[in-house]
């Protein structure tokens, strides 16, 4: 029946503007899908929508210097390094799982040159745990060579993907794990039907090649007070990416990775190569510089750039991300490539006073860890944009309590009736070491309870009530 051109055109029109309720058959406007209100009799219009996840309390992290594992004492709010004395593969796996990884790649024991402070919790070996949860991330077989909007090879950026809605490129994204893609939240504002999303990986061309189905989309929790913050999303794939030379994950930044203004960074995407232009069929790459937020605000953004954002561009302008680049990575070449930012929003493209604005990935590491921890149990998430994981509930709360108990058991003095499962101590390194603060207990403020969302092409962000606040994205 659909051989008729007129009928095919009608189907395309209906698919782009309406959602089909199954029983009874009913058409619902796409604007009514994932709005928190059930319009289909069986509720399928709210059944598989992007879901909000709050940040959740941090529990474990690794440092830039030697990837030293630190665990948070929930009672004192202090971070402590983990002594190697009683560490084992099971604990390594547990620590990696707290950061959202399903396995660990390696664990070693760096020397601590200074003696321990007098304490009943001495680390007899004088060794702390160096933990690597992700293997071979941030590695490419080609090195980018040319500045400013030049064609790119996917082998240089094997983590870059195209997020496509109904076969149309909407945003870029970064593979951070074979099952996970990091992107911008505003990409999903007008495109809430999960089954209509596909992820295209392994090619520097927009056309051709197979795509991967999306299982779930997770957004950072939002507040109307700061609509341009929290422009971050995680896409879980139905099946993992097959890792190869043109399909690899990029590394997340370290929690203590601080970049100086002027640091060289790279951006990539299929977005417009000039303002009011059109999408590029071939992946483009450009080198930019980190701009400090104070200068960025003074130049043209009047305080809109927050501490959860980064600015990047060139002083003279001319090189920038643009429409269609949203969700793609802002990349830093450390020991391995890291995704330090997500293309979010900006005014114009390539203008000197208004450089590109990016979500700071470092500001959302705890959120990324929380999403990957809790997503294994969909029962902990409510359907629709109103969905959220309660703090201390479900698998997240259980995992946090379990690790916290391990920490409490570990800090017991010798001779206690309970076994010491995990040896934790404050291990000050030598003053000459770059990470002299790495193993000292440091006070930690309470985790932020509320986050929010924005964009980079005329789109909007969801509020806690399931509505969207107007904003401008790429």
Automatic annotation (TrEMBL):
One of its GO terms (cellular component) is membrane. It comes from the Eukaryota. Residues 427-474 are annotated as: Disordered. Pfam families: SRCR_2 (PF15494), Trypsin (PF00089). The keyword Disulfide bond applies. One of its GO terms (biological process) is proteolysis. Residues 441-451 have a biased composition (Polar residues). Keywords: Disulfide bond, Glycoprotein, Hydrolase, Protease, Serine protease. Coiled coil: none annotated. InterPro entries: LDL_receptor-like_sf, LDrepeatLR_classA_rpt, Peptidase_S1_PA, Peptidase_S1_PA_chymotrypsin, Peptidase_S1A, SRCR, SRCR-like_dom_sf, Trypsin_dom. Residues 25-100 form the SRCR domain. GO terms for molecular function: serine-type endopeptidase activity. Signal peptide: none annotated. Residues 146-373 form the Peptidase S1 domain. Residues 427-436 have a biased composition (Low complexity). This is Transmembrane serine protease 4. It comes from Calidris pygmaea (Spoon-billed sandpiper).
């Amino acid at each position: 029946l659909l051989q008729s051109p007129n009928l095919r055109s009608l189907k395309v029109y209906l698919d782009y503007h309406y959602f089909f309720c199954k029983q009874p058959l009913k058409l619902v406007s796409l604007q009514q899908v994932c709005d928190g209100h059930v319009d289909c009799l069986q509720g399928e219009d709210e059944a598989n929508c992007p879901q909000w996840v709050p940040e959740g309390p941090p529990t474990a992290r690794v440092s830039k210097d030697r990837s030293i594992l630190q665990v948070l004492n929930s009672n004192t709010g202090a971070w402590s390094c983990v002594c190697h004395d009683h560490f084992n593969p099971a604990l390594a796996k547990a620590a990696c799982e707290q950061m959202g990884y399903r396995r660990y790649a390696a664990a070693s024991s760096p020397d601590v040159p200074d003696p321990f402070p007098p304490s009943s919790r001495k680390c007899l070996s004088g060794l702390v745990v160096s933990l690597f949860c992700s293997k071979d991330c941030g590695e490419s077989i080609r090195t980018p060579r040319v500045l400013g909007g030049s064609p790119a090879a996917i082998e240089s950026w094997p983590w870059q993907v195209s997020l496509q809605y109904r076969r149309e490129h909407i945003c870029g994204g970064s593979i951070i794990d074979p099952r996970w893609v990091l992107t911008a939240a505003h990409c999903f504002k007008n495109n809430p039907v999960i089954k209509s999303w596909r992820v295209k990986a392994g090619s520097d061309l927009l056309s051709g090649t197979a795509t991967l189905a999306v299982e779930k989309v997770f957004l950072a929790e939002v507040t109307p007070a700061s609509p341009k913050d929290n422009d971050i999303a995680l896409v879980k794939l139905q099946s993992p990416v097959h890792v190869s030379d043109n399909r690899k994950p990029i590394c997340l930044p370290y929690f203590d990775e601080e970049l100086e203004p002027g640091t060289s960074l790279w951006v990539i995407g299929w977005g417009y190569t000039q303002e009011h232009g059109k999408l590029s069929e071939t992946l483009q790459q450009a080198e930019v510089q980190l701009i400090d937020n104070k200068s960025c605000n003074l130049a043209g953004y009047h305080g809109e750039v927050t501490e959860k954002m980064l600015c990047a561009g060139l002083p003279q302008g001319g090189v920038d991300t643009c429409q269609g680049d949203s969700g793609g990575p802002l990349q830093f070449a450390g020991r391995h490539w890291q995704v330090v930012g997500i293309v979010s929003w900006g005014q114009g493209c390539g203008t000197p006073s208004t450089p590109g604005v990016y979500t700071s990935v470092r500001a959302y590491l705890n959120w990324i860890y929380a999403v990957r921890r809790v997503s294994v149990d969909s029962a902990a998430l409510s359907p629709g944009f109103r969905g959220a994981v309660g703090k201390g509930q479900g698998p997240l709360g259980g995992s946090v309590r379990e690790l916290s108990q391990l920490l409490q058991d570990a800090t017991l003095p010798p001779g206690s009736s309970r076994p010491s499962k995990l040896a934790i101590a404050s291990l000050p390194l030598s003053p000459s070491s770059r990470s002299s603060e790495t193993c000292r207990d440091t006070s930690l403020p309470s985790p932020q309870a509320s986050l929010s969302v924005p964009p980079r092409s005329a789109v909007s962000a969801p509020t806690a009530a399931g509505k969207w606040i107007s904003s401008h994205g790429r």
